[in-house]
Input
Amino acid sequence: MASSIAPAPLSAQASGPLTGRIRVPGDKSISHRSLMLGTLAVGTTEIDGLLESADVLATAAAMRALGATVTRSEDGRWRVAGVGVGGLLEPTAPLDFGNAGTGCRLALGLVGTHHIAVTAVGDASLSGRPMGRVLAPLRLMGAEAIARQGDRLPLTIRGAKTPTPISYRLPVASAQVKSAVLLAALNTPGTTTVIEPVATRDHTERMLEGFGATLSITTDADGVRTIRIDGPVELSPQSVTVPCDPSSAAFPIVAALLVPGSDLTIEAVLLNPTRTGLITTLQEMGGDLVIENERLSGGERVGDLRVRASKLTGITVPPERAPSMIDEYPVLAVAAAFAEGETVMHGLEELRVKESDRLAAVAAGLSANRVEHETGPDWLVVRGRRGSVGGGRVTTHLDHRIAMSFLVMGMAADAAVSVDDTAMIDTSFPGFTALMEGLGARFATPDPVA
Ligand code: S3P
Output
């Protein structure tokens, strides 16, 4: 897991133009879910394009420990022989989720309504993140959990013997919390209802329907979504094709917008509207970002993104867009550092509880690289192009997106930008440095700090 790997610092210098066509790895959210739903189906689910990153491999190991047979064939296709809803086995050792909030929180949902005991552990980053947000609804459904102070890992959960259906209004805009409750509902007799005041990524709903579950989903005039599911549910195995991850595509997209002369196409990127906030935002900033060859793949909309270097202008990002680009604010802050004028971002409270306190980590990285900005509890204002950018060393706090964002900054900066660690990039984007170097990035091991 990321915590046990020696830190690998790296610096990035101004890059030549990024050109050609690339693909980024499979979507992390869909990869976790395909392994979990495969585990809950009776029969064999086949998965093409699974993201083979540390986070997802931790979920594969967890599903094995819960009774599924998870294998990978030579051609890269994964197969999950599931145990069925109600059939999870008690693991003989703690489940190690590494750096992965999604893997851990969704798996707690699975276990929450199976009468087994599971101990969950993770790396230093995951052990600092709040789990109470999923334990609260699971306790209402009858699960018992003992966690470290503040509902942090390590924790032990014993799933409910007789699960109770609940009606749960999400107190935070979180697809992970929504998904944990929906997964718990599968083994709960009766109607479980999740009320989502602000729409978040809807992969769990879409994939559950794909695996044969019936959901009732309504959206009122204010955009409040009500999702109902009647349990227990039997799931049928599926053939899943995982589209390329827009949250990973974000890094070459921003690099190509910022590096003069770039003209890059990123193929087959997931364009689910609950994930495309960054694309909309960069287009509003003046980014030449065109979607080509839009099509359906495995029930999801995908397209090729053609990105050409552009002069960006700061904008105010509507706060209600935050859930559709929640993982993309660090790299948006980097784009904003090179945009003319102010980029104003509100509604960022959830950034405080990601793999790191991303608002603080971004602000510190901007300061280290001489970018004018201001920040508050849930907002960030970046004032771009006020002087030369770069020259700083960024602390990543085991956060893959902080590392990748500031390496992208270095590719467009006046002086090199270095990050203290890149080992954890493997949690979401294996091959990131090689892919970017193939496009012209100039990465090097920085001199040790005195
Ligand atoms: C995810 C949901 C988001 C996101 C994370 C993946 C998911 O987290 O940040 O990277 O797959 O459901 P929250 O649900 O905590 O917002």
The pocket of shikimate-3-phosphate is lined by residues 29, 102, 174-176, 179, 201, 326-327, 350 (CB under 6 Å). The first strand starts at residue 10 and ends at 13. The mean pLDDT is 97.
